[in-house]
């Protein structure tokens, strides 16, 4: 039978505020274990939480970027379960009144855009980390991460393929990068994702039983795990078996999901309102001022790129999907006036370079000026298109300006007669007075014309050759 | 006055300021009294004389000379005092030394007070008799066969028996006022939000307040003025200015309207009832009018309280799990780090795997075993009862019927008071339906124990301030307490009314005979 997957994603975003959600401890990643803690985030007896204003505002900012409705009242709840990484054995989270609801994100899908609903955005504190000692049967807890502000962004089950899920994550991350509220670093856990997937016969309207997949440490794993789950569930359904509603873990080595715990006897978190944080009204003026201060978002920038630089909708979309890539483009075209080749190099060669090295394009270190210099060298005929491709890779490998590379490799001078011929013609045409002066016997005029050629070639023409060519043309 | 320890705080302050009293001598006298009486009364869980004297010496050399300079004040065992053991009367926190001061403690220290930590209490303030303390019960100084009330029984006993000049207690359902009434001293529960809860080890966060227990109303005003005020570390503390409680004490109360509610009299000792009636007449003689007020939902207050308070308690006490601090059940040879076997870790790959696939050593505890045994061995019976009750009322399927319903009734109780305070300046009530009961009398009957808080609990549910002051004496010679309740942030009115009453009566001059007598002889007599 043909099945249709129904996919929803829960994304946890660590907000990059300087201090934690309910205390003044730093949020920096990688500190000595338990060095970034205090009585509040350690949950010591008697300590009380105080809401971080910056995190609150960034939460609203993020929700607004997804066109969500911001709640009228900010209210926290306690989510209760026992685990050693949770020092109070409850997590301060939001239950029945999330920070925001009913938003959406438009993603590129099958050559068009598709609107994915965002059910809710809520704020909560992160848990600590358990460290397991392989040499002895003991475990340790690092509470540095405890209390770091998290936003949970829950999508509607609107995604219909692993590719759509991947694209949703890419575009969600783009929005977060543009907002500058998170480092979005999956390796450091500042962006985490759980996926929910069920299958149903194509065309059916009822949902099948849902499986939650955890331990997805990159967007690629999300896609791979969903693809695996589709196959597993389809085989089960074809064999007339029931798909168990459960939580499964993605195993990197076997590239398969494994059952973690059954959801049948769903855990009871005994949510109740957090009595230590008094609910407060979210002022509409606050929401309005945050709305006004929203930066340009990927969708807007994409439209602007298409309009202002004459790029195709596709090119504009790809370029703006990564904030650094889009920034690089704009910096380059500020001093190099032809946008299309800049876009082509960024979308083609830069991405290929990144892919070959397992990097996202925005992770590749490159100065906008290098790109401009490379393009100018091509335009001036200093290097051929073929040479430019190699030079581009060398430029990124060695992190050097292509002008320096050209000089080092003696590619600097223009030795091509045809190019010098054209150069001489241009200069002669521009300086008729000097031509007449030379013909009247003023030798200085020849030196002046040679100088002009050197200037116009930015020093790359061979002066002896230029003198010879000018003499020939003037005789 | 024969002894320094018998001074009130304001008397001691005046003497010290005039150079008529050396804080070292004052502390020495209090410590002598502790050494003499604490073995019998057990107001303190532990007292380290040399440590206290050394701390005072350090403060005398350099330290603030504020409003409480050199005055020994004790604090309940649930208020965090930096580097001092603070265990909430529980085994599960045994050995816990907070790395920080509670805000109220900080404020006492900034005024130069000498803190005597570890006044005994019911475990996690769960009780009305100080009998549930893991460290043993406190005895009532008026009759050591009786309870001092609770949960701040150690604080009230210490003040009544001159083991401290003043004290801080905490009040979630009457835990300051009821022991104050049982011990014949003054106790005030401030408006919710008046005093910062930062560093108060939580029982029920939406009900808990820190307040003074003192020998007279003036001391109560003095201590409250030190600890009251907004604290940015407590989101529930109110940014409301603190009036000059001491300076306003003697402002006349002529024209005050005293609200007299028509309360269920069931279980009310007739001696207590009569004492309250007589106290009401005193107010009339002082130029106050009395008006009948209606508090229709007060009969639901105990039921409401035991839903809301236990729900919050079950959550607040979840953190005592043996992982970070306090008591941990462990097997010999594994003093450090918790250890668990893979099969009990909840499945998945997050658990600790044994090296080389060996079977786990038999002396390790699984995480779940460690949790269960720690909490089983660390909590007493009353704490377990409340954790189970609270877990139940928050459970899926029961939340609406219990917790949500409880919060609704709470709103009605609050509304009752709002309406009453449209008509009067303070409501007069008994503090407790009876004078101090006997040790063990109600320990095995939780419901009877809970009912002893019937007149105090509604002030916590409504968040309003209430004071208990001595207003009589029973046939057995036990003190009787009167409670006055005012509108939110009406502490000034409460203190003024209480002060006027105190000036017009002699009850606060009665003291337990044990203070001056041979404690051994007294204990034989009980």
Secondary structure blueprint with pairings:
The complex is a heterodimer of chains A (475) and B (526).
Chain A: E1 3-14, H1 53-65, E2 69-70, E3 73-74, E4 77-80, E5 90-93, E6 100-109, E7 112-125, E8 129-133, E9 138-142, E10 149-155, H2 162-179, E11 191-201, E12 211-216, H3 219-238, E13 246-251, E14 256-262, E15 272-273, E16 280-281, H4 284-292, H5 298-309, H6 313-320, H7 323-335, H8 339-356, H9 368-379, H10 385-398, H11 402-408, H12 417-430, H13 432-439, H14 443-456, H15 463-474
Parallel strand pairs in A: 12-13
Antiparallel strand pairs in A: 1-10, 1-11, 2-6, 3-16, 4-5, 4-15, 6-7, 7-10, 8-9, 11-12, 13-14
Chain B: H1 9-17, H2 23-41, H3 49-61, E1 72-76, H4 103-110, E2 114-119, H5 153-160, E3 166-171, H6 177-183, E4 186-189, E5 209-214, H7 217-227, E6 257-261, H8 270-285, E7 289-293, H9 301-316, H10 367-378, H11 381-393, H12 400-423, E8 426-430, H13 446-451, H14 457-462, E9 466-473, E10 479-485, H15 491-504, H16 519-525
Parallel strand pairs in B: 1-2, 1-3, 6-7, 6-8
Antiparallel strand pairs in B: 3-5, 4-5, 4-9, 8-10, 9-10
Helix pairs in contact in B: 2-3, 5-6, 7-15, 9-11, 9-12
Number of strands of chain B: 10
User: What is the CATH topology of the domain at 4-271 and 427-525 in chain B?
Assistant: Amidase signature (AS) enzymes
Mean pLDDT of chain A: 87
Give the number of domains of chain A.
3
The termini of chain A sit apart by: 85 Å
Largest sheet of chain A: 9 strands, mixed
Helical/strand content category of chain A: alpha+beta
Q: Name the pair of protein chains with the most residues at their interface, and give those residue counts.
A: A-B, 42 and 61 residues
Helix-strand makeup class of chain B: alpha/beta
- Strand percentage of chain A lies at 15-25%
CATH architecture of the domain at 4-271 and 427-525 in chain B: Alpha-Beta Complex
What overall geometry of chain A do the principal axes of the alpha carbons give?
elongated
Strands of the largest sheet of chain B, in order across it? 2-1-3-5-4-9-10-8-6-7
Tell me roughly what share of residues is in helical segments of chain B. Answer: 25-40%
Radius of gyration of chain B: 23 Å
Looking at the structure, what is the overall shape of chain B? globular
Quaternary state reads heterodimer
Strand content of chain B: 5-15%
Q: Report the uncertain regions of chain B.
A: 333-363, 519-526
State Rg of chain A.
30 Å
Order of helices and strands of chain B: HHHEHEHEHEEHEHEHHHHEHHEEHH
